[in-house]
Each structure stands twice: as C-alpha cells, then as structure tokens.
Task: structure prediction
Amino acid sequence: MKDVCFLIHGSYGNPYKNFLPYLHKSITKKGYYVIVPQFPIYSLQTYDNWSDILEQYLNLGLLSETSTIITHSLGSIFIVKFLKEHNLKIKKLITVAGFNNITYEDEHLYNSFYLDNTDKISVAEDAICICSTNDKYVSLDKALSFAKMLGGKVIKYDNTGHFSSNDGYQEFRDI
Result:
C-alpha cells in the first residue's frame, strides 16, 4: 500500500479551500495516497463530531503510525488531541497556523478541541510547525507555544497571515 497522507482543514474549512487542493495534487504526484476528510462546520463543529469521522480511517487501518498528516489552523489541535487520546504516534506531522487555545468570537465552537494539559506531547516522530508573524487569528506567541508543546521544528514566515486563500495561499510550494 502507498504511504498515506491526510490533509486536515480548519474551522469553517473544507477540502476545496485554501492550499489543500494544491497540496492534494502535489502530494499525490509524489506517490502518496491522499485523504482529505470533510469535517462538520458551524454549529456541528465539535471535537466529538470530527473525531467520529477520523476514527473511521483509524478503524480501516488507513490512519496509522506510518501516516503523514498536514493540518491547518483548528485542524492542528484537533489532530494532536485525537492522536494523544488514541495513543497513536504518526510518522510526520506538519501544522500550519496551529494553536491550542485562542480567544475568538465563536469561542464556544472551539472549546471542545482544546487540551487542558499543555506539557510536551509527542504524537509524531517528526513535527514541523509553520507559523506567520502577522496571523490575525493565531498570534505568533500562541503558534510558538503550540510548537513548543509538540517539540516541533518551527518555520516562521513573515507577513503571510493565516495562510488562507484571502492571504494569497492557494498554493503551498514549501510543503
């Protein structure tokens, strides 16, 4: 079986938004089997609802210790919490604009995703955390704190916002 790579969208996202379609195409060309689940959004956006979907891939053996996962925004803490709860350590985790806890206007939609214990968490053999100096949703401090929690390598971009389509990120050639 080919190596499996999951692309996990963020809040209010979908598999066809931001840089995910570009990554799907480019990673598939590298020989990976790419899975881009659609998670519930708006009022149905809860950790349990997202977890129910990802557990199907775990039960099928598609999500395993050999998997690579690339996440955006809320998808980052979701994956970390999911892997921690399932005691699964994957091959590689790349987070883009990841965070554990932010104050936001729709905070009630995010609370179920957050981890209470933010000590170092090892959920991947290799963790890379990509962040921006001017993300309007995830401050640089929050992004760096998230990277520290994962023990991940930090790649910091200047003035790239939240790495969304609105910030010019239809493609992500560095991944």
Summary: The longest helix spans residues 47-59.
